[in-house]
Amino acid sequence: MICALGAAVCFGTASVLQAVAARAAEPGTGSGVDTALFLRAVRQWRYLAGLGLDGAGFVLQIIALRHVPIYAVGAALAASLAVTAVVAARLLRVRLSRTEWAAVAVVCAGLLMLGLSAGEEGTGTGSLALKLGLLAVAGLVLLVGVVAGRLPDGPRALVLGLAAGTGFGVVEVSVRLIDSPWDLRNPALYALLLGGGAAFLLLTSALARGSVTVATAGMVLGETIGPAVVGVVWLGDSTREGLAWLAVTGFVVAVAGSLALARFGEPSAPAKR
């Protein structure tokens, strides 16, 4: 859980740094899958620093996924939205209201419940159908990104964030289904690469226009609910005996608190480079 929370801090801080860089870069094609925008943004130190934090967060995420259920890791990563809001208050000069601070406290309470109730990770290895399904979902994420790029800024940020979160969710599940990174016959390996790459492209486009917190809220939904269901139903994740109710409550509270931040947090335009 400590690793999962560390990953949330890394991811949440990276989102704001990458948002500043994406908004400061010259516009790309306007597509949801915008490689031109990504290449312009990646030239800035803020985006590179964000990528470094993403890398550190990914390592911590892998460690966490090898020891606790996916639902616990996913909810902990949802706390990245609380981190995003707090860091945005500093870097994007956003004033957090009492409601937002209360939402941060709610997220922490939900994570505490999960930490007390989470059992060990399941022993399920996943079927070939599940691995192929993950690969198909990763491909669908790219298609959604192409379509979402044509939407107005408000729903565009939300849909792209949701699709990016789904891509990151594919990564979470894939980590559990990969025994060796050198097993090139495992579809989960390609699902991880495609899902993670697509998620980065879509999240960069989402952060370039619209609210940082709204885009990240969509990402939180995408990377928590689906992977949690897969972990419990197909991979055997469970809770400590008699504490299933506490785990469910903690999961709902943590995700709801994160979404409450998206509802009330609306960052202003970032400072120029």
TrEMBL record:
Keyword Transmembrane listed: yes
Keywords: Membrane, Signal, Transmembrane, Transmembrane helix
Transmembrane region(s): 45-63, 70-89, 101-118, 130-151, 157-175, 187-208, 214-236, 243-264
InterPro entries attached to this UniProt entry: EmrE-like
Heme as UniProt keyword: no
Signal peptide feature range: 1-21
UniProt-recorded name of the protein: Integral membrane protein
Organism: Streptomyces virginiae (Streptomyces cinnamonensis)
